[in-house]
Structures are given as C-alpha cells and as structure tokens.
Amino acid sequence: MKATKLLFTALMLLAFTACSNDNDPARDATNDAKPQFIIGTRSNADTSMQLTYSFTDDGILIIDNAAIPSKEEFNKQIDGHAWRLLSQGFVLPDGSIKDNNKGNQDEYIVLYNQRRLAILSIFTYQPEERKTHYGNYIDYNDQTGYIGLFNVVKLSADYSQMIAVAETYWYPDPHEKAVHGYSVWVFERLTEAEKSQAIADYKVNLDQLVAESVFEPSNGKEVFGAKLSALTFSYIEPGELRVNGLQQISESVFRKHIAGYGWRCAEAHQIETNGTVNPKDYEYVEGLEQKEHYYFGDKTYQVFSTSYYHNNTPWYYEEKYVYDERYNIFFEINDGQRVGGQQIICLSEDLKSFYMIGRNMQNHFSSSTNDFRYNLVKYTRLTDQELKELRQKHSTNFWDLDWNTGSSTTD
Questions:
Q1: pLDDT exceeds 60 at position 366
Q2: Residue 100 lies in a domain
Q3: Least crowded by CB within 10 Å, which of 199, 276, 331, 357?
Q4: Is 194 part of any domain?
C-alpha cells in the first residue's frame, strides 16, 4: 500500500522514501544537460566538498565531480561508524536549493554496523523521546554509492564528513501536488566516544546490527523453502520480527510458480508480541491500511489496492523488480536501485498460494508508539479471468491521485 508506506516513512524517517538511481549521480553529464550549479557544505572553505551538478532535460540530477567511495572505503570509513546529520536541502530542477536544515528533527544519526543500519532521531514535536529504527542489510554498491537511504557521493579527505544525495519528493504547498527533486545530506562522523554515548542514549540493540546469514545460491536448482508449520516467529523487540526456520525459495521456483500469475490477498493474521499468530483475520482499518494484490511479470510487477482517501478509488501502480533468492525477497527497483522489498516465507504444497511477511503500521492496538508488529499474509493465485477483472476494476494509476487534496470520505 504505497500511500501508507510513503506517509509512514515521511513521518518517521523524514526522507526514508528516498530512492537512489541508476541515473548514477556520478555518471558523466550528457550533451542535453542544463547549466551547472554548485552545492557547498556548511564550511565553504573546503572546496573539495563542493558538488558541481546539472539536470538533464528529463529532470535527472547529474553530479559531475562525485567521488563515490570504494567498497574498501565503505567497509573501513563508513561501516561501523555513526554519522550525525548536519544539514539537508532539497535540490529542485531549476537549480535552486530549499534548505530546511534538519527538517523536523532535533537530531538525526545513522549508524552502520556490518552493513546493517540503525536510525537514531529526536523529533522537535517529541523532544523528550528518542527513537531508534532498524533497517535491513545493505549490499553496498560502489558504482552508485547506494547505501540504503541515499547515494554517498563524497567523503572528505579526513573522512570526517560525508555528502549524500537521494531522489525524493517535497510539498512546497499543502494544496498542490508533490514536486519531484533531490535531497542533499551533509553528515559528520562521530568519534568513538560520541558513538558509544549515542548507543547508550538511544538504547540501541546491537544484536539488531549483526549481519544475518543468507542462503547460498541455488545454481538453478528448484529449492522450495520451508513449510509453514516449520516456521516460528519471535520479536527482538516489538518492531523487529525474526522468522525462525526460514529456508530458501530459489529464483527458478519463483519464476515458474509465482511470476506470470496474479495473486489476491486472501487473509492476514497479526503476529503477536509472543510470536504466536492470531487466528483472527486481520481487520484492515479504513484510512490507515488497505489490502494489496499483486501480479508478477518478468521484470515488472503490479500492485492493486484501494484508496480510502479518495472515495474508495481502486488504483494500481507498476514498478520494476528483481527477485533475490539469497533473501527470498522481491525488491522494487526504482531508477536501477533496490528501494524496498517484501519477503516470501513459504509456498503451499499445491503451489497455488504463498505467505509473506508484512509490516503492520497502524499502531492502533497499543499506546506505545514503538509497538509496531507484523502480519502473516496469505496470497492465493488468480485465474486469468480473475486477473482480468482485477485489472479492469483497478484502472486508475496511483500517481494520478492527488494525495494532498484527496477526500477521506468512504462509501
């Protein structure tokens, strides 16, 4: 449910909706590029940390003097360190920069450890409450600088500062549609003492930042994964679920038995804090969360759902994707980068349904703002006729909906 994901991430992580790009910020400017501009750090004395950039006619940001860290530099100088956000600005296609400093956050720190991510933040409207959010394992891309939230485009010579860029949207007027642009982030690296203090202050669970084991490549073998009855669930904390007993589902199985078909969300069950699965079908709450249905093509997948913000308008959107059998995850691809994924945990024996883990972001069941849980969601295969009817019903493109002015009226 893309609307809820965008809303949640915007509120909780400011620009977590950021998508990096295979329109690589470091690639050479083309002949159709517009005039160049300069992004400077807070200290313009260090001219080596200035970025020269331009935009192509179709609005793609090109950074002409990027110096993307190598994997060796990432492993030594970024991974294992904590970075405090100094400033953030929105770079618009006309070359102007909307500088909002750190947005609505008093403090924003990213902590990488074994290519896992934790985000530590204090919001201005809740200054007494420190928040910690854990991200997924990041397979660093030294061609684009992709690091999970953004693309790293420069490190200072002494590795004390880092500049990153992320594709994003911002709202200059609450009554107008979002404007597409780019965010530029400037970070400073904390000392080991400051990092230790931040870990203590935010009560970071270091067990969450230990790299998870991944499956070995199947080498084309048909590996079907575990049965549902063999899986158990446990929360490291209320917001982070671990699936125990997970087995690999190979890409060949995904391509043969899941891709090429439509899938309806048949039922969803909340996974309780003690790891048990509530037998009651989860009740999706209007205005907060909607059920999603899928179709997987060869390189793109389609999502079908309903907007309660727009008089129950059925909508769809299509994105590129790739299935990674190392994690049983199909990753959405936005401009060449993996920006979000869903994990398939098992297939039914008749191969006509599968189960997936979905994060429950409604938070209506607890007074604790950190008590997010997960759903166990079952999808059943559609016939060709059912898929045709689903597409006919959900004919409105998600991106044609104006999320700033949409009505919350329901039928």
A1: no
A2: yes
A3: 276
A4: yes
Query: Which residues are within 8 A (CB) of 4 and not within 5 positions of it... i.e. 6 or more apart?
Result: 288, 289, 290, 361
55 and 183 together in one domain: yes
pTM of the model: 0.59
Q: Which two tokens stand for residue 271?
A: 């996974």
pLDDT digits (tens, 9 = 90+) for 278-317: 998 877 655 445 789 999 999 999 999 987 777 788 999 9
Task: Output the domain CATH number for residue 313.
Answer: 2.40.128.280
Residue 27 covered by a domain: yes
Place of tokens 């045709």: 388
Q: CA-CA-CA-CA torsion for 247, 248, 253, 254, nearest 10 degrees? A: 100
Residue 131's CB is within 10 A of a number of other CB atoms, namely 18
Q: Which residue has the tokens 């909706």?
A: 17
- Within 8 A by CB and 6+ apart from 170, the residues are 90, 98, 178, 179, 181
Please tell me the total count of domains within the chain: 2
Same domain, 127 and 181: yes
Are 69 and 182 in a shared domain?
Answer: yes
Residue 341: both structure tokens together: 């994924």
The answer to whether residues 248 and 325 touch, using CB atoms and an 8 Å cutoff, is: yes
Domain co-membership, 186 together with 262:
no
Domain membership of residue 36 (yes or no) is yes
Check whether residue 155 and residue 234 sit in a common domain. no
Which letter, b or e, does each residue of 225-240 get, where b requires 16 or more Cβ atoms within 10 Å of its Cβ? bbebeebebebebebb
- Whether residues 173 and 261 share a domain: the answer is no
**pLDDT reported for residue 242:** 82
Decide if 166 contacts 159 (C-beta within 8 A).
Answer: no
Q: How many residues does the chain have?
A: 411
Rg (CA), the chain: 22
Q: Which domain holds residue 311?
A: 228-400
Around Cβ 241, how many Cβ atoms within 10 Å?
A: 21
In this predicted model, what pLDDT tens digit does every residue of 115-152 receive, in sequence order? Answer: 788 899 987 777 678 888 877 667 788 888 988 788 99
What tokens appear for 154 in the block?
A: 């420069």
Q: SS3 sequence, 328-362?
A: CEEEEEECCEEEEEEEEEEECCCCCEEEEEEEECC
Strands (DSSP E) contained in 259-326 are 262-271, 293-296, 300-307, 313-324
CA 13, 326, 273: angle at the middle one, nearest 5? 50
